[in-house]
Amino acid sequence: SPTNAAFYQVGKNEKPITRSIVNDDKVSWDINFPDYKPIEYTSPIVLQQPEWADAINPKPDTKWNDLDNGVDRRSHNGKYKIRENVPINPCGRTGIIGRGLLGKWGPNHAADPIVTRWKMNADGTVSQDKNTLKPILQFVAIQRKDTGEWAIPGGMCDPGEKVSITLKREFMEEALNSLSMSDEQRKQFQDKLSNLFSNGLEIYHGYVDDPRNTDNAWMETIAFNFHDDSGLFKSIELNAGDDAGHVEWIDISSNLKLYASHKDLIKKVAQLHNAHW
Ligand code: RP5
Ligand code: MG
Ligand code: MG
User: Fold this and answer.
1) Would you give the distance in Å from CA 10 to the centre of its chain?
2) How far is ligand 2, taken at its centre, from the CA of residue 177, in Å?
3) Based on CB atoms within 10 Å of each CB, which residue in 59, 153, 193, 245 is the most buried?
4) Of the options 3.30.70.260, 3.90.79.10, 1.20.210.10, 3.10.450.50, the CATH number for the domain spanning 109-203+222-272
5) Mutate to test the pocket of ligand 1, among 12, 156, 265 (most ligand atoms within 8 A of CB)
6) pTM of the shown model
């Protein structure tokens, strides 16, 4: 279900916005809710129309549910509805109309690289959980600068960018700080990672419960797992960059508290590897 948080402050420079309350039983558009009075909010950053943002009012000739001049306006969740030339969130009411912090009307596409390895003991055996006796998986997590929450180092797909490229680019930017590397260094890291990133497994594609979602703009993602069994990261040091403040290998378990829908994605990865959860 869409985010129901009463407060909406993503980004330290944003003023906190109070969503109008939508109880779980009123989220679906199929339920009559005559008193629904969503607040209207689009961040000043978005209204300045940076290159990643749509026009203030959607252009009348926008190709909804289609590729639109390189911008992918298709949803993973099927065809979304348009009302008065504005897309309607397929998962229901959020308490906000407008775009909030999101650039695109309708779906905003992201990709989430979930890089994993087994946790090792000093003697070279795989570490097991004391209770479940299952092996412990670790993943590369970043701490987001906007909300302070731990998260997968994912990010937005650039228009026309292949998902495989976005996955690797975002991992390198947020977990290896590639934005501050020389072109030559960046190329070296790209090569080091090329085996790992060419053997991914799709974990999920579709709508995600992101705190930025509104009734007219929402996040969708494609998440891939890249599992390293070769000890590759013995020679690669993690280094937070871009919208990540910190980066770490984190043990996977059901105790994790993560941003947006990321815990669900990580759970799927744990199940895939029959790891401790
Ligand atoms: C989440 O937003 C997605 O799962 C992805 O991790 C992230 C992309 O947004 P930015 O990290 O670019 O803000 O819902
Ligand atoms: Mg990023
Ligand atoms: Mg990001």
Assistant:
1) 14
2) 10
3) 153
4) 3.90.79.10
5) 156
6) 0.93
Q: Which atom of ligand 1 is nearest to the CA of 156?
A: 12
Q: Is 268 exposed, middle or buried (0-12, 13-18, 19+ CB in 10 A)?
A: middle
In sequence order, which residues have a C-beta less than 8 Å from that of residue 156 and are 6 or more positions away? 52, 103, 108, 109, 110, 166
Sequence letter at residue 125: T
User: What ipTM did this prediction achieve?
Assistant: 0.97
- Which residues have a beta carbon within 5 Å of ligand 3, which is an ion? 155, 243
Residue nearest to atom 12 of ligand 1 (CA): 155
112 lines ligand 1 (CB under 6 A): yes
Contact 73, 64 (CB under 8 A): yes
Residue 273, classified by CB atoms within 10 Å of its CB into exposed (0-12), middle (13-18) or buried (19+), is middle
Contact 276, 135 (CB under 8 A): yes
Could you identify the atom of ligand 1 that is nearest to the CA of residue 154? Answer: 6
Ligand 1 neighbourhood includes 219 CB (under 6 angstroms)? yes
